[in-house]
Amino acid sequence: MADIEMASIAGGTVALHDARRKLRWSVELEPFELGVYPVTQWQLAELIGETATHPRRPATEVSWLRAIRFCNAASEWEGLEPAYTYDGEEVTWHVDADGFRLPTEAEWEFACRAGSTRPHYGPLDEVAWTSADGVTAPQDVGGKHPNLNGLFDTLGNVWEWCWDLLDPARYDDYRVFRGGGFADDAWSVRASVRRGGAPRMHHEDVGFRVARGGFDATDAAQGWSAAADAERAAIDGPLPPGWTPRG
Questions:
Q1: Helix (H) / strand (E) containing 87
Q2: How many helices (H) and strands (E) does the chain have?
Q3: Cα(first)–Cα(last) distance of the chain, in Å?
Q4: CA distance linking residue 37 with residue 209, whole number of Å
């Protein structure tokens, strides 16, 4: 398999917010690794046996569940302990495993910002493929400038799946994707913007990059915890109009 180039991300603090619940909080992160590029069509093809029509472009039309399976397959290829087990669509993250995995939202935003407190880590036309470029598809990875962590395309080109649930009270099992894509205007291509989709959904502008790092904990790590997910999912009374029915 084509090697997955990883960057070492030092630990630190990142500030997050939840617009619907009007909450802001800080997360202390331990060091971890994150892919220098989004996973490419070539890398996906090598592990899953598909044709890579544009080998250096980010792999897209990849559901969250498929990204999880790619992470485990890459771990097994490298002789690492897989980060996930699953029973149907019920996925468990074993946070002490050293294998490939999806980043948490906190990890993703911290690594994307690379010390910046602004919406972008550089002039957007220099660091991200967006609607301003007039392209009609994802572009080869690494075509714009990296951030100070040496990461390419965290903003623009394609959105990237994260591990976390988007808003389990409102959207049930939807998972987060971050970063904006080639068809998005500048407002959506910011380090703090969060969107999401169902685990089986796949889109032409959503891909993923992998993380690594195991932690001495159970069901909680790097800004995520199963207990917090359960708390966020709790709703007293009927769901408001327009909310996704719980599975």
A1: strand 84-87
A2: 6, 13
A3: 37
A4: 7
